Amino acid sequence: MSASASRLRRLASAAVAVTACGGAVLLTPSVSSNDRASGHPTVESLRQIINDPSAVVPSRTLQESALIGSKSGPLDILVVGGGATGCGVALDAATRGLRVGLVEREDFSCGTSSRSTKLIHGGVRYLEKAVFGLDYGQLKLVFHALEERKQVIENAPHLCHALPCMTPCFDWFEVVYYWMGLKMYDLVAGRRLLHFSRYYSAQESVELFPTLARKGNGRSLRGTVVYYDGQMNDSRLNVGLACTAALAGAAVLNHAEVVSFLKDEGTQRIIGARIRDNLSGQEFDAYAKVVVNAAGPFCDSVRKMANKDALPMICPSSGVHIVLPDYYSPDGMGLIVPKTKDGRVVFMLPWLGRTIAGTTDSSTSITPLPEPNENEIQFILDAICDYLNIKVRRTDVLSAWSGIRPLAVDPNAKNTESISRDHVVSEEYPGLVTITGGKWTTYRRTSFSMAEDAVNAAIKSGKLSPSNECITSNLRLIGGDGWEPSLFTVLAQQYVRMKKSDGGKVVPGVMDTAAAKHLSHAYGTLAERVATIAQNENLGKRLAHGYPYLEAEVAYCARNEYCESAVDFIARRSRLAFLDTDAASHALPRIIEILATEHNWDKSRQKEEMQKAKEFLETFKSSKNAHFHDGKHQ
């Protein structure tokens, strides 16, 4: 305990110093003489930099200056797109000793990467296909999904955890089928196993999951089989990737858009991009030996900048999710039905104190702000209704959103049968490597990796000279090194929440368990920095009733996580927009007030931020902002 307290005191002191400087200072450990001689930091010194509790990411101004400075010496790789794949590529390349830049039109994780199912899949459905299709390729996918799930959880333990998932069985054949299948899954998992699967009787099942119906579609519950998968806070994991890449030396810039490519006049090879800073409106050129297109659903529009006749690679699919109150599912137990009466998969999972349910899978058009339609929401409510013993109401929907899955088509394939959720790496135009497809879990995956494959392709294309091989399989993300589940107790014991009352008087408040646990899981070992701001700057008040988010988080994210807009905070730094659109709307005035102080916004900018945030929340079809009077779930 004494060692832990000493570490926390050192971190608190560093946090105060950083806060005083506005968070624009990069504190890095000394570099060894070997590092200076080689020109590249060693793998171990990189780990020290990333895991240093006093390190602060470079300011956005410094990052933009680094990109502008590439005119005098080109970057090795410029990544276009700040989702899971793009940030994974930037981190992989930077930790290999390459000079890396990344630009994102909106914000890190603004698209598909923040709108996922929140599960880190271990490939259990691939196993069924492997067995019944005698497909060794599917079996390999199981092995690699299991390995990657284990690595993601270990590399970001504060943001990821194991979640038991219950599969209800309504006849004895289903009991035997799922029990045998999941026992085979346990065997295949081996050392990658999270926990053993097991069978529970009908009585045991309803004790574990009180809202589970004993009868469904005229059949009686015979029991359930429970297995374990991984769960994550997807957008915070994505922001963690971006910040870790920045600490490793990558120049990452959100709200910066590629407007055109720069080409060599003689060879026509792409040698960089014209970039517009969407916050200032200014444009500049960034030069690189290779450009990696990791724009997710929008990768075709990036490809067409290089070649207007490029054939589409993306076959977009829409996935809708809804958020319900916590009483729909118990904390710490999910419900997954592999095959409903119409053959689809449906699930209900506890997530950040609420219940997430989904999902749909339908064709869609590509748009920056996809919206769920009422039929999709009603389908999810219909599907879960069959398995619950409570009334399922549309008025209980706190938030509903749609995400676009970028199913990939290999442009070099001779037919379109190659559409899949696996990823595709292609260099159709000299100097432009495109990576698309895949899933969240595979952003880094070791053998069939997305980031690793893309970086390898870029190294080959640009004849680059990395200083070492890929090391991201065992690299803790920022806030993950040294994190323990008990960290929240130290926060609760050593910090108070100083908050201003409505009359302007500053009063102390307890750092309660809910707030302490939230800070610990959202920020890992850096949670003490947020707690220090709450205590020393009188920003300890909650932003929304019933949620643990603190005012201090807005200031911290503005200083340390490139939070540049109100939407950045309510959607990606916190998850308030995804959890409860009404609560997010009520919190907006205070969030904008704090951001205005941090970023020196005038009244016009504050008004613009409020308008944009309101428009953003309108795309989340909660019961507060949707017309659903013709639906059966009232």
TrEMBL record:
Residues 470-605 form the Alpha-glycerophosphate oxidase C-terminal domain. The keyword Oxidoreductase applies. Pathway: Polyol metabolism; glycerol degradation via glycerol kinase pathway; glycerone phosphate from sn-glycerol 3-phosphate (anaerobic route): step 1/1. PANTHER family: GLYCEROL-3-PHOSPHATE DEHYDROGENASE (PTHR11985), GLYCEROL-3-PHOSPHATE DEHYDROGENASE, MITOCHONDRIAL (PTHR11985:SF15). The keyword Mitochondrion applies. Its EC number is 1.1.5.3. Residues 76-443 form the FAD dependent oxidoreductase domain. InterPro entries: DAO_C, DAO_C_sf, FAD-dep_OxRdtase, FAD/NAD-bd_sf, G3P_DH_FAD-dep. It comes from the Eukaryota. Belongs to the FAD-dependent glycerol-3-phosphate dehydrogenase family. It is found in: Mitochondrion. Its cofactor is FAD. One of its GO terms (cellular component) is mitochondrion. This is Glycerol-3-phosphate dehydrogenase. Keywords: FAD, Flavoprotein, Mitochondrion, Oxidoreductase, Transit peptide.
